[in-house]
Amino acid sequence: MALLDFDEAVDWVCVADPDLLDERARLRGVARHWPRYAPGVRGLSVLPVALARRARPGTPDPANVDYVLSCLERATRGCLEGEFAALVTGPVHKGVINDAGHVFTGHTEFLARQAGVAEVVMMLVAGSLRVALLTTHLPLAEVPAAVTPERLDTALDILDAALKRDFGFASPRIAVLGLNPHAGEGGHLGREEIDVIAPAVARARSRGIQALGPLPADTAFVPERLADLHVVLALYHDQGLPVLKAQGFGEGVNVTLGLPFPRTSVDHGTALDRAGTGAVDPGSMVSAMALAKALASARARS
Fold first, then answer.
1. How is the chain split into domains, by residue range?
2. Can you spell out the DSSP letters for 206-245?
3. pTM for this entry
4. Topology given in CATH for the domain delimited by 118-258
């Protein structure tokens, strides 16, 4: 649906099976011609990658997993080689990818490997609210061991650099959440804040980064505190994202920071029960495309 009402000031390239796009457009009652991609083609075009087997709406097919990964690999290669200025991705079904024999925890990790980048940071944006994640798709029981000095140092460096270069903040203010309730209650509810998180914040400040914390997660998102912040660094997936999605679900954007190119995505999953019905809201994809355009423009100016 987002492709049927795209920003005509941008040359969008859709990496996909054109027959699949034709079929989905017909489901929406639209007859659409998809020009094939070639350097110099203006507006919207399609870079063809063939499905292995005809896709049925709402039914993941392991036979088409290699098609999904091939689309991602081709688009990523185009960004790395300067052919494309930014990458916008839709949701993928992680379960069927893993069932087909591929180790796949998410776009973020996949793109980091493709780009040869050791560390990246996932950040979601909904309006003026930005929430970054120290760890992403990790079982909760493994989170405490993953909150390390090295990971915190790297995440704060990536956040500071990206907010300056891509978002235009001269001195971004970054709040770091605590791991435990009440940020450890002075060590009575856990010592990670004292032993790991507070020292990382102090080191960041010594490097000129405007970091503060650790803050208790249950009060960090009150409007008065957020008004003085540019981003909140949550330590695990469900510590920060429920707040952001409660405020901006359907219009939020997932941004991968630390890649050599801008990458944005939707803030939701595959919604298999709605596939092919037309009962979907393309707002998050439209927002992701708009932010990718803005980030690509910022990179071009830097």
1. 1-117, 118-258
2. HTT-EEEEEEPTTTTTSHHHHTT-SEEEESSHHHHHHHHH
3. 0.88
4. Isopropylmalate Dehydrogenase (3.40.718)
